[in-house]
UniProtKB/TrEMBL annotation:
This is 4'-phosphopantetheinyl transferase domain-containing protein. It comes from Spirosoma radiotolerans. Residues 117-196 form the 4'-phosphopantetheinyl transferase domain. InterPro entries: 4-PPantetheinyl_Trfase_dom, 4-PPantetheinyl_Trfase_dom_sf, P-Pant_transferase_sf. SUPFAM superfamilies: 4'-phosphopantetheinyl transferase. The lineage of its organism: Bacteria, Pseudomonadati, Bacteroidota, Cytophagia, Cytophagales. Pfam families: ACPS.
Length: 226
């Protein structure tokens, strides 16, 4: 059974298996944005500067700022310039640090931190033509979406779970979304079992986490100012 703890304060991995930091873009003022931007490795700094929309740049930096907050809370080195790395599949990781994953959508950024492989995906639920994504679901999943009272919400729910598992696996586009079957809260990808959980932290947002731990205790940590 998963226990969801909601609150703030200093968390630690002795009592929880995953910490889920989240914040809106309003948590990062212009001065803080510049500070955290300059804490990033050169490659990440350059990526941020390539964003055309300031909002996307802010969200990217906010996600890294949440990571730094989580590292500091748990007694890790929170400087990223020499410890933040990226695998050949494009998955970020920390040298001598915990597992983590970052996602952002709309005006919200989230960062999941764990001792075991973890993935997180958040989506701002908006009206869209979901039919163009049918090929990313197996027939049983698509049938579930079509028969749902709110097909759009059902689509985002399964999509977030798929993305979270793909991100936890860490092999990126070498996997297909149809390989991740989301009819239950457990799925297998590349011979590894992943457990998914849904989290509803803000109206009109759906978030999912994926973990290799089947009985994880998750602490949600809202950050108002960073």
């Amino acid at each position: 059974m998963t226990i969801i703890l909601i609150g703030s304060g200093l968390p630690n991995f002795k009592s929880v298996n995953m910490q889920l930091y989240y914040a809106t873009i309003n948590a990062l003022n212009p001065e803080a944005y510049q500070y955290y931007l300059h804490q990033l490795p050169d490659t990440e700094h350059s990526k941020v500067l390539k964003y055309r929309r300031p909002q996307d740049a802010y969200l990217s930096v906010l996600g890294k700022a949440l990571l730094m907050r989580g590292l500091a809370d748990n007694g890790y080195d929170d400087t990223l310039r020499d410890t933040y790395k990226v695998t050949e599949f494009g998955r970020p990781y920390m040298l001598n640090g915990p597992k983590f994953n970052i996602s952002h959508s709309g005006i919200v950024a989230v960062c999941a931190i764990s001792e075991t492989p973890v993935g997180v995906d958040i989506e701002n639920v908006t009206r869209m033509d979901i039919d163009v994504f049918e090929d990313h679901f197996i027939p049983e999943e698509w049938n579930l979406i079509q028969k749902a009272t709110n097909p759009t919400a059902a689509f985002y729910t399964l999509w977030c779970k798929k993305e979270a598992v793909i991100k936890a696996d860490g092999k990126g586009l070498s996997n297909s979304l149809t390989d991740v079957i989301t009819l239950t809260d457990q799925t297998t990808l590349n011979e590894t079992i992943y457990h998914t959980r849904l989290h509803f932290i803000y109206p009109d947002y759906i978030m999912a986490t994926a973990s290799t731990c089947g009985h994880e205790v998750i602490k949600l940590i809202q950050v108002d100012t960073i």
